[in-house]
Specification:
It holds the Pfam family Homoserine_dh. GO terms for molecular function: homoserine dehydrogenase activity; NADP binding. Its EC number is 1.1.1.3. One of its GO terms (biological process) is methionine biosynthetic process. Keywords: Amino-acid biosynthesis, Methionine biosynthesis, NADP, Oxidoreductase, Threonine biosynthesis. By secondary structure, the chain is of the alpha/beta class. The chain folds into three domains: about 5-135 and about 305-340, NAD(P)-binding Rossmann-like Domain (Rossmann fold, 3-Layer(aba) Sandwich), CATH 3.40.50.720; about 140-300, Dihydrodipicolinate Reductase, domain 2; about 350-430, ACT domain (Alpha-Beta Plaits, 2-Layer Sandwich). It contains 14 helices and 18 strands. It has helices at about 15-25, 25-35, 65-70, 85-95, 105-120, 140-145, 160-170, 175-185, 195, 200-215, 235-240, 305-325, 365-375, 405-415, and strands at about 5-10, 35-45, 60, 75-80, 100, 125, 150-155, 225, 245-255, 260-270, 280-290, 290-300, 350, 355-360, 380-385, 395-400, 405, 420-430. Strands 7, 8, 9, 10, 11, 12, 14, 15, 16 and 18 form a ten-stranded mixed sheet that branches. Strands 3-2-1-4-5-6 form a six-stranded parallel sheet, with helices on both faces. A hairpin with a 3-residue loop joins strand 11 (about 280-290) and strand 12. Helix 5 (about 105-120) packs parallel to helix 10 (about 200-215), helix 7 (about 160-170) packs across helix 8 and helix 13 (about 365-375) packs antiparallel against helix 14. The protein is elongated. The protein starts with a strand and ends in a 5-residue tail after the last strand. About 45% of the residues are buried.
Length: about 425
């Protein structure tokens, strides 16, 4: 029976999980793959911390170059993270003719085009199922299962930290800061949650999904990104009154000539299945012209769910090695010669309904002034809601608009914010009315 040798770089949470499955489920994997997966090395600078895994003699080492330069290693698993040394190690592995499996979405979103080009030049594969959606098989779904579809759009809850915080705020009417503190205490949020709560983690994932869905270069730079730090319990309560739930969404929509790509908080109707995805769970809906809507749901992070996705890539590459296949399934879903740049529609040109909240002085004529400015900017009001929730002498004025262009909405908000009767900056949340 053929033996395929594997080296892991980094033995943190994910790396430990991958090692555990390779060691503890060796017989199961062998029976399903038809080859023996041998974990030859695990390289990490810290070899003293107990990972709860029974490594064999000589497996745990400190020198990553031993893994990268060993001619017997077939597959290198990168679980270091970040865009520094991980990039150097991945490039060296590919240049040395080794297949690479990674969960590193930040690296792929920023340097994925370079990594794919290098893999093609050296006739090796890159597996990255674990980079987006944890254990949800969204990469395989786009790259293989939906190959006969023109993908028309993707909408996803792709960050468990943000989803946990928004769920907590919605269910318990607590502040963002309190919900974040609990998420950190439970291990759902990092000590520095910036990439999560400001939306960048979701943007990394969306850049990868867009490339697979539309046959385009990985393009992170043109994705509009907003986080959830400005969402308040008041806005969540008003959303409930109107039949909406607030979620941090990664959204892309495919037209004939360009792609929408944006990450921001959005109000979605309670009939939308994504509105019921709670806690740290992730979910993504994919709209294909043949299938209609497909929804995937699962743990987006965590040791074993992420390790499971890494193992799926190892298994795919192992099967390719056994048959002598190279790039049987193109890394980005279609042959490299067919990958093309597709422009991303500027945010100013998108159109959605909007939720506006203004903190207005409790005096006559304010509502008419706001409505007048919106009308002059071509924005039609669907709902106006004003309650006597007086705070520091102001009352909230809530408006839901019909479909409006972003540049018009921003123009109106800029003018409204200069009114003497408006205190603080208006709150704006886009509304995704469709069920996708």
């Amino acid at each position: 029976m053929k033996t395929i040798k594997i080296g892991i770089l980094g033995c943190g949470i994910v790396g430990s999980g991958v090692a555990r499955i390779l060691i503890e489920k060796q017989a199961l994997l062998e029976s399903r793959i038809g080859a023996r997966l041998n974990l030859k090395y695990v390289a990490d600078l810290d070899t003293t911390t107990d990972r709860g895994v029974a490594f064999g003699e000589g497996v745990f080492i400190t020198d990553a170059n031993t893994v990268l330069n060993d001619p017997d290693i077939d597959i290198v698993v990168e679980t270091i993270g970040g865009k520094g040394i991980a990039k150097q190690f991945m490039l060296k592995a590919l240049e040395n003719g080794k297949h690479v499996v990674t969960a590193n979405k930040a690296l792929l979103a920023s340097f994925g085009n370079l990594l794919v080009k290098t893999a093609m030049e050296h006739q090796v594969d890159i597996g990255f199922e674990a980079s987006t959606g944890g254990c949800m098989p969204v990469i395989k779904t786009l790259r293989e299962s939906l190959v006969g579809n023109r993908i028309e759009g993707i909408t996803g809850i792709l960050n468990g930290t943000c989803n946990y915080i928004l769920t907590k705020m919605s269910n318990e009417s607590c502040s963002f800061d309190k919900a974040l503190a609990e998420a950190q205490a439970l291990g759902f949020a990092e000590a520095d949650p910036f990439l999560d709560v400001e939306g960048f983690d979701s943007a990394h994932k969306l850049a990868i999904l867009n490339a697979l869905a539309y046959g385009m270069d990985i393009n992170l730079d043109d994705i509009h990104v907003e986080g959830i730090t400005k969402i308040t319990p008041m806005d969540i309560e008003f959303a409930k009154e109107f039949g909406y739930t607030i979620k941090l969404l990664a959204i892309s929509k495919n037209s004939a000539t360009e792609v929408e790509a944006r990450v921001h908080p959005a109000m979605i109707p309670n009939r939308n299945p994504l509105s019921h995805v709670e806690g740290s769970m992730n979910a993504v809906t994919i709209d294909g012209d043949a299938t209609g809507q497909t929804m995937l749901y699962g743990h987006g992070a965590g040791m074993m769910p992420t390790a499971s996705a890494v193992i799926s890539d190892i298994a795919d590459i192992a099967r390719n090695i056994m048959t002598g296949a190279r790039h049987r399934v193109p890394i980005l879903g279609c042959p490299q010669t067919n990958i093309r740049p597709i422009p991303v529609l500027p945010l100013s040109q998108i159109s959605t309904p909007y939720y506006f909240r203004f903190e207005a002085a409790d005096q006559p004529g304010v509502l008419s002034k706001i409505s007048g400015i919106l009308g002059e900017c071509g924005i039609s009001i669907k709902i106006v809601h004003q309650k006597g929730r007086r705070t520091n002498g102001t009352v909230p004025i809530i408006m839901i608009t019909h479909l409006a262009k972003e540049e018009n909405a921003q123009k109106a908000l800029k003018e409204i914010s200069t009114l003497d009767s408006i205190m603080n900056q208006p709150v704006v949340i886009r509304i995704e009315e469709t069920d996708n």
